[in-house]
Automatic annotation (TrEMBL):
Protein name: Uncharacterized protein
């Protein structure tokens, strides 16, 4: 008796083709831009500048990293501002 394990191997990409991708948020870049990963095939998406979901290419990863830095420094400045005004 032979156990052909190759036949029972689950093909995530095929699952996604039939049922669609199952994305979950992997990273919040800004309030509007997020990065998503499909739990089945690990395909990655991100929110583009016009609000559509696009494939997360190395170029978009770069853009998101810059966006994240700008967003965080803005948040830090906002925190400092409210902190300063609460003292005065
Ligand atoms: Zn998928």
């Amino acid at each position: 008796m032979q156990n052909k394990s190759t036949n029972t191997a689950f093909i995530p990409k095929m699952y996604c083709n039939i049922f669609g991708h199952d994305y979950y948020v992997t990273k919040k870049v800004t309030r509007h831009v997020k990065e998503y990963t499909c739990s089945h095939c690990k395909k990655q998406l991100t929110t583009s500048s016009n609000g559509n979901l696009v494939e997360l290419t190395p170029k978009f990863k770069e853009i998101n990293a810059i966006l994240e830095r700008i967003h965080q420094s803005r948040m830090n400045r906002l925190k400092e501002k409210t902190f300063a005004s609460s003292i005065c």
